[in-house]
Design goal:
Blueprint (H helix, E strand, L loop, with lengths): L3 E6 L5 E2 L4 H4 L15 E5 L1 H7 L37 E3 L3 H5 L3 E6 L9 H14 L4 E5 L3 H13 L2 E7 L4 H9 L3 E5 L2 H15 L2 E2 L12 H7 L1 H9 L7 E5 L4 H15 L8 E7 L4 H7 L26 H9 L3 E5 L1 H15 L5 H15 L8 E6 L23 H12 L4
The structure holds zinc ion (ZN).
Zinc ion binds next to loops.
Length: 426
């Protein structure tokens, strides 16, 4: 059973009903200003949860994400939709770590999820709560992982999905979204997608799977609850040891904050006695969070123009208040990297660990590399990098491989080929 009690404003703490669709996606109306909009966060009866939760029973309730159903906001089990997401492997690095000069480096490989990205945790929970609230159409502004995952989970739940994409979207995502039955609506501007989405929510009653608010994105409160299971699993995978640092690429920050919320709830439930520092990695040509923190702001401001980067999953001109809070509350670090560093890290991750990630995930590796070089990470610290999605979603973002001419099926042709093309001798 769910121990969720209400939604609370992350800034002022005002409480809202869990089931009031009319207000919960628009942020807190009480502390709203011209520049700031605070998100609402799901709260639980932590006192009762602490009494009935032990390491032995934690995460043993159902399948997929629902193994953590006590700490998720869906109140009626009949609405639990699952594609058996989560429970992804935490892989100990034994080669990349040497390149990065680290003794204890781990990769949480979220590309093993049903639609090959960490967004499946978010969408699993968001769709399930949506069905419980009576949703018939799910809507999202996304040209990537979030859109693909929304379409998959909407399909599994038996409802329609509408995906507002940018004018250009790569073929892999188009194919994937349409295969699930998602309806793609390309829009010429990024901001225009949010405006249309807001009207769909307000005028048509469609169910939002992500942010659409201005001046700041408030995120999807229930999606963030799904994302937090990533934090739970990291601690479980490490046999209840708390790493020093957890590193994610940062876009709008739902997955980033969700992971932090999960990690901090583990401490709140007395399952562990401390929390890690969070490290966010943005692209240098943008970095709204790093810039806001450097300027000492208490909110994030939009970057103009929008960043241009090959890491499309984190090509955002704004991020959320949740992301800022995760850094501040965890005494974390907000860093940024260049496309050149991302490319080098992607190759390194694939060639040293056999993990072919999307460029955004490689940004996290590049961020760790540069922080280690600057001495802001110590060699003996336990570091967990979240590999958010696979490189197969958009292989040509990083390189267009030259065509390879086929050889005759002859031994001599083969020997000649591996010698001339790959430099292998007898
Ligand atoms: Zn508030």
């Amino acid at each position: 059973m769910s121990f969720a009690t209400d939604l609370k404003c992350l800034k002022c703490g005002l409480s809202y009903s869990l089931n009031n669709k009319a207000v919960i996606f628009g942020g807190c109306h009480s502390c709203k200003t011209d520049k700031f909009l605070s998100p609402l966060i799901v709260s639980y009866d932590y006192k009762r949860l602490t009494e009935c939760t032990t390491r032995e029973t934690f995460g043993k309730k159902g399948s997929g994400l629902w193994s953590f159903s006590d700490l998720l906001p869906v109140q009626d089990n009949r609405y639990q939709v699952t594609l058996d997401e989560g429970h992804t492997p935490l892989i100990k690095s034994n080669r990349l770590n040497e390149e990065l000069d680290l003794d204890n480096l781990f990769i949480k490989d979220e590309s093993r999820n049903p639609t090959w990205s960490f967004k499946d945790r978010n969408c699993c929970c968001a769709i399930s709560k949506g069905i419980e609230l009576g949703a018939t159409v799910a809507v999202i502004a996304s040209s990537g992982n979030h859109g693909a995952s929304t379409a998959a989970y909407a399909s599994k739940a038996g409802i329609q999905s509408v995906i507002f994409t940018k004018g250009s979207i790569n073929d892999a995502f188009t194919t994937q979204i349409q295969a699930y039955g998602g309806l793609i609506v390309p829009v010429t501007t990024s901001e225009g997608r949010w405006t249309l989405m807001e009207r769909c929510v307000k005028e048509k009653g469609w169910y939002p799977m992500g942010s659409y608010t201005n001046p700041m994105p408030t995120g999807q409160p229930f999606g963030i609850e799904g994302s937090k299971t990533l934090g739970y699993e990291i601690i479980q995978d490490l046999d209840w040891r708390v790493p020093e640092k957890v590193v994610l690429p940062l876009g709008l920050g739902e997955g980033f904050y969700g992971t932090w919320k999960g990690l901090s709830e583990m401490e709140q439930l007395d399952l562990v006695d401390n929390t890690p520092s969070m490290i966010s990695v943005e692209v240098e040509d943008g970095a709204p969070l790093a810039k806001a923190l450097n300027r000492g702001l208490d909110h994030v401001e939009k970057i103009a123009p929008a960043p241009s980067t090959l890491a499309s999953s984190i090509a955002t001109s704004i991020t959320s208040y949740q992301a800022m809070r995760a850094i501040k509350d965890s005494t974390g670090i907000a860093t940024s990297v260049s496309d050149e560093m991302i490319l080098a890290a992607q190759k390194l991750l694939a060639s040293k660990e056999g993990l072919y990630s999307e460029p955004a995930s490689a940004a996290a590796v590049a961020g760790v590399r540069s922080l280690r070089e600057e001495g802001r990470i110590d060699r003996d610290e336990t570091i967990v990098i979240v590999l958010t999605s696979t490189g197969m979603k958009d292989p040509y973002a990083t390189t267009i491989p030259p065509p390879i001419a086929a050889i005759e099926p002859k031994w001599e042709s083969f020997l000649d080929f591996i010698h001339t093309s790959h430099g292998l001798s007898d």
